[in-house]
Amino acid sequence: MTHALVIGGTGMLANTSLWLASQGYHVSVIGRNPSKMESLISKAIDHSRITPVIVDYRDKSQLRKKLRETMEQNGQITLVVAWIHSDAEQALQTIVNEVSHQNDEKWKLFHVLGSSKNLSEMKATIRLLDSICYHQVQLGFVMESGYSRWLTNEEISQGVIDAIQNEKLLNTVGTVEPWEKRPFS
């Protein structure tokens, strides 16, 4: 069975986690909130396809430990979807290092980024090995009838799913231009 890891998979990427499980992946989901994790698992068609990984990814040593445990239990990770908050500067590199160390084949990383992020700068902050196929999913906003709004969780998940299905190296969900039209809330 193919093993995927989703960071942010109980919140805005919940539908991505569920979709991956429905596509035959075993999905390890990193989250901090046990009740949100239970809610996600209850929505899965096959509960056994989702492994909860309850950890605060800002804690590098605990993150490393939990990643090793889920890979021992579920096998090599071949797909990572990562939505990581900016206050966890070491988290993505820790994930990249651990997955690469345990993986003897090429794997895919879908890095989900906010609308204000500079994509090339973000990519430059990660030491990527040749075994990684790196993809970026940039989240924007939606213009409707002259007004703007942020993306819904469903739109975000669908954009990530689209990037995975089409193996897009860069997928912008919504729009990021004109920047001055973005919502302010």
Q: How would you characterize the overall build of this protein?
A:
The chain is an alpha/beta fold. The strands form two sheets. Strands 3-2-1-4-5-6-9 form a seven-stranded parallel sheet, with helices on both faces. The protein has a two-stranded antiparallel sheet with strand order 7-8. The radius of gyration is 16 Å and the shape is globular. 32% of the residues are buried. The mean pLDDT is 92.
Summary of the model, kept short:
This is Short-chain dehydrogenase. The chain has 185 residues and is α/β, with parallel strands linked by helices. It has six helices and nine strands, in the order βαβαβαβαβαβββαβ.
Q: Topology of this protein?
A:
Blueprint: E1 3-7, H1 14-22, E2 26-31, H2 34-43, E3 50-54, H3 60-74, E4 77-83, H4 91-102, E5 107-113, H5 119-124, E6 132-139, E7 141-144, E8 147-150, H6 153-166, E9 170-173
Number of domains: 1
Quote the distance from N terminus to C terminus: 42 Å
Q: What's the pLDDT, averaged over the residues? A: 92
CATH fold annotation: Rossmann fold
CATH top-level class: Alpha Beta
